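With this grant's support, we have paired protein sequences with backbone structure tokens. One protein thus recorded is set out beneath this paragraph:

_____
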Amino acid sequence: EIYFPALGDVWKVQVLPKMNVLTSSCVVIPCTFQYPGERKSSARVRAIWEAKDSTRSNPKYIYHNDVTQVMDSFQTRTRIVGNLGDQNCTLEIDKVKTHDDGPFCFRVELENTDKYSFTDNCVTFRFQENPDKPVLVHDAKAYEGSAYGVTCSVMHTCPTHPPNLTWSRDDAKPVVYHKNIGFGKWEVTSLLTFVPSANDHDEDLTCTAHFWGQRTEVNSITLNVKQKQNFLHIIVPVIAVVLIALIFGGVYKWRRTQDK
């Protein structure tokens, strides 16, 4: 940070120092910044993302609004998804590769005024070769003929291309929720509600997470469906006994009446 006591302003950026990313998928790096003076429109703010060892004589840009300035290995893979006019410098990197390890730093250039590279606040990546497994939440028992709900959730780092969650049964339409967990993590959740039958007992229910970059991961549960209790084998004999009792009771009462 650089302070300007007379103005009460500061050059400042907020980025995460480390992020977990899935190779071949995408990552969104949350980023906000401040600069001295009044806020400027997006057209008057130039955003640059560069490697930490980038110099003016040997620039290593991973994002620049002049795409010819971007390193070949990052061509067409980066874009600003934040609003620079709102001091949001959030960056997306697509098709993440293991050599995209960083550190990567943000640089801002204000039209006709100042520019600053935030080399003390950069981001590095920890790579995941395999996606996270979806988490399934459900009641232990389902009941035949009664609505039953199961949620499938998975964490990710790319809200611009979130995972698509699908189910192994298509007799109900799931409801999908998206949540910003913070710290560069997001969560997508799919809620499936259906009415199980007796035939669903011991059947597998599978949720598949389709990540951007053609990566998938699955998780399953085995349904434990309790059948409706059939009380006919109890009710019918009881009714028969009651009827017999009523009949004999009526006959006995009639005979006593006749005897009098």
The mean pLDDT is 88. The first helix runs from residue 232 to 259. The CA atoms of residues 167 and 207 lie 5 Å apart. The helical segments are 232-259.
